[in-house]
């Protein structure tokens, strides 16, 4: 199959992409979080192609993307007031809500669950594609399953060229990590995955928020969890990743001590001078956490190379968007962290 490349700002792009979606094929689409691999979310056969293209485990449900908040009534029932308040405040934007699913949503999309995850992305061309297709799109991150997510059209080309119908190029993703996921089906609102909408923002609106243990710890493979995707290895380059915590100086002295040929250092821009001769790769500025979230996956993909032996990674501290960066980096590191202050 020859993959069509479509510029997001070309006037015919939404129509062409919508036609492909309606015909049951896959399109790589930009969003503000990461690039998605999109199909008609109501078409079982089209959704099956997503799982196949990604090599995604069948029990890992997809997010349904809608063009307007009002559309969720077609796919969800028993929608609590909190969902409307959150939609009003944060949509379009990087927040996914898990709600009770109507029978209109195929089991393939929800991976057999009675709930469905819904989101309205903050990306004009993608909302226009959804509107013109006249169906919600199911779209996980476009990366091959288990690998770092796709934050540019080039990343999607790398993983799927010749195997999907089209890719819409909307430039690099603004947020760079996947959406925040909140479960509203379980009494108290529960944070299943941190992202661009922060726990602090959610708490301010809801007045309560439980953080699921899968966010903070590795969970075992057999566990039955609310968000099945959380139990798989995620975001990881081929090499082992070790997070080195502690002050800049202590971390640099630890890393320089253990560094071996073939190792790489993933650090903040401010730290580059400390790693001269140690092939450092900066993924953003520690002083601006949005640059870290925007740059993390491109850096992890660059490090996903058989020649790389081990990655020593520096991770931002604190809440807000840093909480999402910590979550992705810790998962990429399989929660291996060393504290340079006590080494
Ligand atoms: P992604 O691979 O970035 O598209 O992530 C989609 C993630 O959304 C899945 O891996 C799940 O963790 C989560 N998700 C989707 N649908 C549901 C659902 N019905 N209940 C809980 N989590 C869900
Ligand atoms: Mg993903």
For the biggest sheet, the summary is:
11 strands, mixed
- Beta percentage is 15-25%
- Determine the structural class based on helices, strands and strand pairing: alpha/beta
What is the average per-residue confidence, as pLDDT, rounded to a whole number? 95
The total beta strand count reads 16
Global Rg: 20 Å
User: Residue ranges: pLDDT <50 for 5 or more in a row?
Assistant: none
Fraction of residues in H or I helices: 25-40%
Count of discrete structural domains: 2
Backbone shape:
globular
Physical arrangement of strands within the biggest beta sheet:
1-8-2-3-7-4-6-5-9-10-11
N- to C-terminal distance: 53 Å
CATH class of the largest domain: Alpha Beta
The CATH topology annotation of the largest domain reads as DHBP synthase
Tell me the number of helical segments per DSSP (H or I, 4 or more residues long).
11
**Element-level helix/strand string:** EHEEHEHEHEHEHEEEHEHEHEEHEHE
